[in-house]
Structures are given as C-alpha cells and as structure tokens.
C-alpha cells in the first residue's frame, strides 16, 4: 500500500470519549491482570490510529501549506489534540492506580509507566484551551516562515531556495544572499518578536496552572526526560565551552587560511575556496544511489529503503508552498515512517537524506514494539540514530560526491564539531528566556548577543543588521515550536561521534551495536539506551573531552588544502 492509499479520517471527539470511557470502565471493573492487559492494548490500538491520522494531516499540510483543504485537516487535529490528551490522561490515572501494576510493569518494563507518570504532570483538563492557543501560535510561526517570498537575482525564492547561494564560492553572492534572507526577517521582525513574546508568556501561564514555578521543569517533562534535569544539561554546556569552543576557534582560523581571507564573517560559511562539495547527481539518481548504499550496508537497511521508495514514503525536493526543513514522521497503524526534506543542490541534500533515513530506519526497526510509546525514544536518543547513520554511510559517499568525497568527509566532521557550541547556545538562551518570562524582546536579543560571545566568539555578522542586532535565533524553528529540544542534537552528536570512532575501528561491531539500539526503540530512557549501545554518557565528565580529542586529531591529520 502506497502512502496516498493510507486510509485517513477525522476521528470524532464524542466517539473517542465513548471508546475511552468504555475502555476505562472495563479496566476498572476487572481487576485481573489478563483483563487489564487487554484494556491497555485496546487503548494502545486507539492511540496508534489517532497518531496515524494526526500525522497524515500534519504531513499533508507541510507538503503544501497553500492548500485550504490540508490546512483544514491540520487545524482539525490541532484542535482535537488537547481533548485527546485529556482522554489519555484519564486512562493514565486508571493504569497508575491499578492493583496489577507490578504485573504490568513486569510485562512492559517500568519505562512505560514512568512515561505515564510524566504525562500526568504535563496535563490537566483546565489547560485545554491554553494548549489550543499554544498550537495556534506555533502554526502562526509556520505560516510566516513557509510564506517567505524573497526576490534575489531576478527570481523569487523561499528560505530553503536561497541555500545554494549561501554556499556560493563567490563571496559577494554569499553576502548578498544573506542580505536577502535577513531582509525577510527584518520585514517580519515586529511580528516575530510579538509572536515569541506571546508564546513565552502563555507557556509560563500553563506551567503556573500546573503548579510549576516556570516553564523549564514542564518543558523537560514534556520531552519525557525522566533520567536527567537542567543541572546535568548545564554541566554539559559548560564542557562544550571548555573543550569544544577552543577547538572550533582553531578550525575557524584554519578555514580563514584555506579561504585566503583577511577576516572571517558569518557569510563565509563554506569550507573550500572553490566552493563546497555538491551532489553530482539529480534527485532521482540520488535515490538510486541511496538504494545501492542501503542494500550494501545491511540486509535490513536494504529492505527498509526499497520499501520507502516503493510505497512513496519520501518527499525530498524543495518547491513553492512546501514547509522548509527536514523531518521524519510515522504512522503507527500502518507501521510505516515517512521522510520529508527540501533538496536544494547542496551537500545538505545528502546529509539530510542519511539523517532522516536514520530516524526512519529506527522507527521501522522498532515497529513491532508492543506499545506506541515504545515506537520512538525520547528526542535526544532519536538523534543518535539519525546522526550516526550519517557516519555509517560514509563508505558510499563517493556515489554522491565522486571525486570530492574526501572533501565532503572532512567538511562533514568540521560541521558536526562546529555545531556543538551553537546547539548549546540555543539551549542556554531558552533556559534564560523561561527563567525571565517578562523580559522584553530587546532584552532577549541582547541576551542572545551575550551568549554568542561565550559560545560563538568568532561570529561576526559584518553589516547584516538583523542578526547583528540579536535576531539570529528567530530563524530557528525549534525555539518557537519545540522548546528545549535543541540540546538533544548536541547530546546525540557526542554519541554519534562515538559510533563514528567505533566504525573506523570495527564496522561490523559498530553496526551491531547500532542496530540493537534501533530495535529497542523507546523502551528505555536515554541513559539506558546509551548502555544498550555500549556508549559513554555525554553527561559523564570526560566523555566530551575524550571524544573531541579523537575527532580533532583526525582532522589535524589531514591537510584540507590537499583534498
């Protein structure tokens, strides 16, 4: 069955309520383990159906944000979501007070019940309308960004469409393309400021009504972080400042020499004077190359990717009206994932294909987990699968980059290492924002600039006024729509580097550890999954130092001018 043939419908809240009431009624009236287990599975099936239809509605809108039909379906499920959360919460209360809890934990593992306990902390029926409002504000950001129409060199582009110009070997074109990009943000600056201000204050209000001092603790619970908190994250950020920032400064100095520039500005984002490596094939041939790559990598990845292509579970190329960025979603009822991206002719096309395929392969590998909650792990663990897949596919990068393959690999490691301080900066900024919900937009921008000096001390915007005045972060979707998610990429990158190191030494063992991690899905918290994969925790003092030293020594052994 192809994606367009997946059955879809609007679920009715009254019918859902009737079903959940019936499930809870049977659950509470029958105290036997067998009966309660059956009720749990009925609720699980309902959840799989709901999440599948909600995912289809959201995906169709992202594929065409100009469609009134798709917008109506997404709006319907956005409005239904808090109501369904209320029903889930009612079932959570029943299951957490069950006399059969020990037997249920024995069958499914304690993590599911930790998830249920956490979900209870994040929801109360009194905040339903506030949650609906939060979704409205998040959709407003989507509309602003997806609606970008930027005139550049006689043509009109969306934000993704400007990407190739940002990577031009011509410095003047790079600079002008960023000026065009930030002219869009400048025109929408007041709207973006006001939107974020309303979001922050609304989230603070939601947190207060749930009994939290501010949104931070609630934000962590929303992300299912059951085994670490802000203190551990703050210590991790501190290690990034101590170990990674100096290494990135060395890399920036080296890049300045490679590019033969007197000074490095933000728009000098290329790695090589002749321009960065680009895929040598068109999108269709890239998919063919990916088929060969995944068939060679393992039997499981080969079957997986053939299925993705055959069932039209890929939407890869940038086009007008399509939401920017890349992501993977899933339809639990149909046991299928979906990859969404915006190819624009840059090396990012390849890394986003391998990255999102890592997510999709994990989801497909764990499709037989007994519970929907175990299909995906928490987000920082999800990013291990995606970022590690970028490295596991290295032996086949010549299929995409031909003679520039070694240049690509060097650039890939440089970019991955250089990302860590930015990811930490985004996280530090969000903690400050939600600790200070009454701060003005101007104060937020000033704080961002102060944090840039700590995490990104070499960054110089020249005369790009919008980012120079502290607005750079407003182009980061996660800050608006997924608070506290972004540090997950840095935690996962630290783990992905470990898989890369393993694969350099023993590809077979590294892949076995990776595939084992994929199959267990979300049946454990982050720290448990790290143990399963035989990785060292990023939170442990010394892990980041050891990993970064290996990575930097690898970079140091290569003369990029000779690539």
CATH architecture of the domain at 3-134: Up-down Bundle
The percent range for strand residues is under 5%
Mean pLDDT: 97
CATH class of the domain at 3-134: Mainly Alpha
Category from helices, strands and their pairing: mainly alpha
Neighbour order of strands in the largest sheet: 3-5-4
The coarse silhouette is globular
Number of strands: 5
Return Rg in Å: 23 Å
Largest sheet: 3 strands, mixed
Q: How far apart are the termini?
A: 45 Å
User: Level of helix content?
Assistant: 55-70%
Under CATH, the topology of the domain at 3-134 is which?
Butyryl-CoA Dehydrogenase, subunit A, domain 3
Count the helices. How many?
24
Structure description:
It is a single chain. With 563 residues, the chain is mainly alpha-helical. It has a domain at 3-134: Butyryl-CoA Dehydrogenase, subunit A, domain 3 (Up-down Bundle). 65% of the residues lie in helices and 4% in strands. It is built from 24 helices and 5 strands. The longest helix has 31 residues, at 33-63. The relative contact order is 0.11. The mean pLDDT is 97.
């Amino acid at each position: 069955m192809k994606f367009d043939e997946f059955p879809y419908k609007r679920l009715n809240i009254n019918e859902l309520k009737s079903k959940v009431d019936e499930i809870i009624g049977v659950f509470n009236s029958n105290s036997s383990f067998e009966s309660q287990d059956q009720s749990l599975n009925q609720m699980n099936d309902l959840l799989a159906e709901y999440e599948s239809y909600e995912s289809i509605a959201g995906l169709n809108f992202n594929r065409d944000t100009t469609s009134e039909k798709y917008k109506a379906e997404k709006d319907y499920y956005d409005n239904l979501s808090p109501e369904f959360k209320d029903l889930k919460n009612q079932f959570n209360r029943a299951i957490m007070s069950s006399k059969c809890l020990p037997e249920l934990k024995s069958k499914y593992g304690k993590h599911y019940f930790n998830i249920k306990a956490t979900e209870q902390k994040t929801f109360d029926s009194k905040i339903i309308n506030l949650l609906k409002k939060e979704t409205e504000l998040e959709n407003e950001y989507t509309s602003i960004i997806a609606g970008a129409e930027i005139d550049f060199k006689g043509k009109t582009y969306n934000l993704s469409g400007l990407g190739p110009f940002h990577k031009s070997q011509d410095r003047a074109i790079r600079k002008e393309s960023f000026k065009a990009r930030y002219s869009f943000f400048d025109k929408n600056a007041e709207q973006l400021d006001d939107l974020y201000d309303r979001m922050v204050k609304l989230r603070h209000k939601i947190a207060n009504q749930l009994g939290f001092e501010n949104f931070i603790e609630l934000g962590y619970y929303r992300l299912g972080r059951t085994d670490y908190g802000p203190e551990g994250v703050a210590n991790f950020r501190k290690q990034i400042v101590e170990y990674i920032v100096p290494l990135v400064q060395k890399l920036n100095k080296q890049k300045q020499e490679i590019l033969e520039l007197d000074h490095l500005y933000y728009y000098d984002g290329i790695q090589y004077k002749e321009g960065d490596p680009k895929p040598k094939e068109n999108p269709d041939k890239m998919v063919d190359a990916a088929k060969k790559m995944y068939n060679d990598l393992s039997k499981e990845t080969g079957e997986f990717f053939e299925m993705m292509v055959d069932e039209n579970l890929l939407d890869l190329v940038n086009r007008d009206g399509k939401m920017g960025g890349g992501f993977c979603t899933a339809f639990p009822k149909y046991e299928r994932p979906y990859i969404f991206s915006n190819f624009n002719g840059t090396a990012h096309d390849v890394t986003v294909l391998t990255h999102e395929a890592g997510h999709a392969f994990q989801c497909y590998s764990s499709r037989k987990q007994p519970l929907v909650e175990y299909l995906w792990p928490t987000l920082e663990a999800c990013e291990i699968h995606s970022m590690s897949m970028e490295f596991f596919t290295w032996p086949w990068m010549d299929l995409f980059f031909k003679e520039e393959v070694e240049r690509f690999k060097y650039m890939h490691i440089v970019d991955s290492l250089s990302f860590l301080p930015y990811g930490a900066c985004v996280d530090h900024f969000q903690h400050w924002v939600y600790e200070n919900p009454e701060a003005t937009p101007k104060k937020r921008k000033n704080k961002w600039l102060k944090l840039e000096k700590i995490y990104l001390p070499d960054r110089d915007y020249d005369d790009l006024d919008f980012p120079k005045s502290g607005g750079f972060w407003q182009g980061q979707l996660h800050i608006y729509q997924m608070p506290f998610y972004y540090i997950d990429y840095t935690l996962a990158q630290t783990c992905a580097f470990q898989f890369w190191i393993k694969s350099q030494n023993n590809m077979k063992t590294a892949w076995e550890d990776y595939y084992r991690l994929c199959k267990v899905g979300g049946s454990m918290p982050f720290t448990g999954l790290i143990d399963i994969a035989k990785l060292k925790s990023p939170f442990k003092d010394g892990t980041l130092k050891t990993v970064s030293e290996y990575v930097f020594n690898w970079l140091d052994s290569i003369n990029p001018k000779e690539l």
